[in-house]
Amino acid sequence: MTLKQVLIQVPGIVFARGPAVAVLILLESDDGETFAVLTEQVRVLTGKVVLELPAGMLDDDEGDFVGTAVREVEEEIGIKLKKEDMVDLTAFLHPSTGHQIFPSLGGCDEEMSVFL
């Protein structure tokens, strides 16, 4: 038995994922260095453990982006934040973007808000 290479064009695939959030947490050391807090996540599709910003999907229909951001940070890295302390970085984007980031618009409908 031999292995034969077969080239077949497959149709593009898109998937509906929905809204999500990510949180950029910056820590400053006593000597003035700034560090970003990342979380290790196992990503089966890549076969790797990767470093990421704490992030997650909106689990409700109410669109509580800030509440989701606070919850994901506590779940993923154990830091408790207050909703009123969150800064929506995507609010500074041009209005034509809908104040959202689309990380993979070619294949997915995921829209993301990023908080500081």
TrEMBL record:
Residues 16-116 form the Nudix hydrolase domain. GO terms for biological process: nucleoside phosphate metabolic process; ribose phosphate metabolic process. The keyword Transferase does not apply. Coiled coil: none annotated. Its cofactor is Mg(2+). GO terms for molecular function: ADP-glucose pyrophosphohydrolase activity; ADP-ribose pyrophosphohydrolase activity. Keywords: Hydrolase. Pfam families: NUDIX. It comes from the Eukaryota. This is Nudix hydrolase domain-containing protein.
